[in-house]
Amino acid sequence: MLGEPAPVEPIAPMMLVTARLPHFCDAVVGAAGRPLSFKQMPNGTVVIGGGRRGRADPSENLSEMLFPELRLTAQTAMEIFPVMRGAAIVRSWSGVEGRMPDDIPVIGPSARHEGLYHAFGFSAHGFQMGPGVGEIMAGLIATGATQAPLAPFSITRFAA
Ligand SMILES: Cc1cc2nc3c(=O)[nH]c(=O)nc-3n(C[C@H](O)[C@H](O)[C@H](O)COP(=O)(O)OP(=O)(O)OC[C@H]3O[C@@H](n4cnc5c(N)ncnc54)[C@H](O)[C@@H]3O)c2cc1C
User: Fold this and answer.
1) Is residue 39 lining ligand 1, measured as CB closer than 6 Å?
2) Among 8, 53, 77, 109, which one has the highest count of C-beta atoms within 10 angstroms of its own C-beta?
3) First to last CA, the chain
4) 18 C-alpha vs ligand 1 centroid, how far in Å?
């Protein structure tokens, strides 16, 4: 919209949650070789996601679950945690998210317009990055400078 190239792609990460299980895991677990994020909540339910995608419709701000893909997420969880084999899935959901081609968000000032700042394309990591990015952006906008090393996040990496 502002003439600054930003190849952001709409994606639809998917999650599922199980019925309560006896407590067996305190850590938030990720897998290195295949997509998985895995966390048992204090009430015993297990929230599982980590990369399998549904179908994103950015024009309507809607997403659609793709259950054959979600099945693979459940399968990975069962293979890594055999205790999950009898678990019942009670709910699943997805949402529209912005992904950059290098999975690194765009954070910092516009290269084209004075007074315009970018913070988008969090590539499925925006919850964890939000508080830090918010603090950096507030300082940057209020004072025009930041100590944060923002060069790798610059929108100029996509300049034609
Ligand atoms: C299922 C799922 C699970 C996730 N799990 C995690 C996780 O475990 N950890 C993690 O760190 N991150 C996770 N994320 C990613 C995280 O939710 C996002 O990175 C984060 O919400 C992005 O924040 P944002 O403010 O950049 O964008 P958004 O939260 O998408 O906000 C953008 C806003 O802009 C509005 N908008 C769009 N176009 C216009 C327009 N033209 N004019 C006005 N408003 C407009 C939209 O309606 C929306 O409200 C997950 C995402 C999904 C979908």
Assistant:
1) no
2) 77
3) 16
4) 24
Which three-class secondary structure state does DSSP give residue 26? coil
d(CA 55, CA 110): 30
Say if ligand 1 is within 6 A of residue 73 CB.
Answer: no
Taking the complete model, does pTM exceed 0.70, yes or no? yes
* Domains of the chain, start order: 9-99 (3.30.9.10), 106-158 (no CATH)
Which of 97, 106, 123, 136 most suits a substitution to test ligand 1, by most atoms within 8 Å of the C-beta?
97
How does pLDDT run across 27-55, given as a tens digit for each residue? 999 998 999 999 999 999 999 998 899 99
Q: How far is the CA of 108 from the centre of ligand 1 (A)?
A: 18
| Atom 16 (ligand 1) nearest CA | 126
For the segment 62-117, what is each residue's pLDDT rounded down to a tens digit?
Answer: 999 999 999 999 999 999 999 999 999 999 999 999 999 999 999 999 999 999 99
Ranges assigned E (strand) in the chain: 9-11, 14-18, 29-30, 37-40, 46-49, 55-57, 62-64, 89-94, 97-99, 106-109, 117-120
